[in-house]
Amino acid sequence: MNLYALIVFHHVARNGSVTRAADELRISQPAVTMHVRKLSAELGFPLLAPKGRGILLTEAGERVAEHAARLFALQQDIMSDLEHYRTGRKGVLRIAATSLPAHFLLPDWLAAFRLEYPAIEVNMMTHNAHEVIQRLLYYKADLAFIGGGGELVPGLARQLAFQDELWFIVAASHPYAGLTVTLAAMMQERFVLREAGSAVHARLLALCKVNSVQPPAAAVVVNGIHETVASVAAGLGAAYVSSLEAEMAVNRGEVARVIVPDTTLPNPVVLVTRDHDPLPPAAKAFAERVLMRGKSH
Length: 297
What we know:
The chain is α/β, with parallel strands linked by helices and 297 residues long. It has three domains: 84 residues, Winged helix-like DNA-binding domain superfamily/Winged helix DNA-binding domain (Arc Repressor Mutant, subunit A); 87 residues, D-Maltodextrin-Binding Protein, domain 2; 106 residues, 3-Layer(aba) Sandwich (D-Maltodextrin-Binding Protein, domain 2), CATH 3.40.190.290. Helices cover 47% and strands 23% of the residues. Strands 3, 4, 5, 6, 9, 10 and 11 form a seven-stranded mixed beta sheet that branches. Helix 9 links the parallel strand 7 and strand 8. The longest helix is centred in the N-terminal third of the chain and has 28 residues. This is LysR family transcriptional regulator. Keywords: DNA-binding, Transcription, Transcription regulation. InterPro entries: LysR_HTH_N (IPR000847), LysR_subst-bd (IPR005119), WH-like_DNA-bd_sf (IPR036388), WH_DNA-bd_sf (IPR036390). Belongs to the LysR transcriptional regulatory family.
């Protein structure tokens, strides 16, 4: 069945006029008449009967007009839905993130975004840096946020979304609490370490290698940022963490910072996307707002 002919017939039936239907559709009157005749022939029933200068729907025409009206409404719904999708007003935003941005940055960013785009469905997955990259590469996520910058991966583009610092912390009762010590001395402590694949763990190992210092022994290995700070507060060991993770616990007196000269490293949080791959509209809108927010800071 010619669906466009049904739309043409809908305009004729609604207006009761071939002329007005032609004006609405911006096609010629003969073209309108041709479409209606072909539809009538295809269905095997006359759809219109002459009525002076106007038209009259036959019984079959009335029935077809009801279906055509629903088709026209569906067409309008499709166009409206796709326009909302195109502008990012509707759709699904799929984010893969490491623990730092997932816990300390993205909740506020997404809350602000949802005020402007309330119809967007948000799916956020938290993994280590390696798994986040894999989800992006295999199209299981549209955007990735990685604390510590992550590794350079061919085919992926990175942009700075936020930056803080990496701190050494110990329990508030530790002898080093609030003091300045050397990196060699700090590495003699047992550490609460993040799991292999963690960006912060990789940064700590790189710091030791650059300074020709033996990496610290593990007191315990955890796979969560809250577990890290809680383990340090309980006295299980020292840790190397983002200032975002530690600042509130430091302010509450649960843990303390240790100053290690020449080791205060910036800790970038990067937005990672597939290079040369257009973002879905919702992801594009969110990424633009995050990057604009980063520039203002």
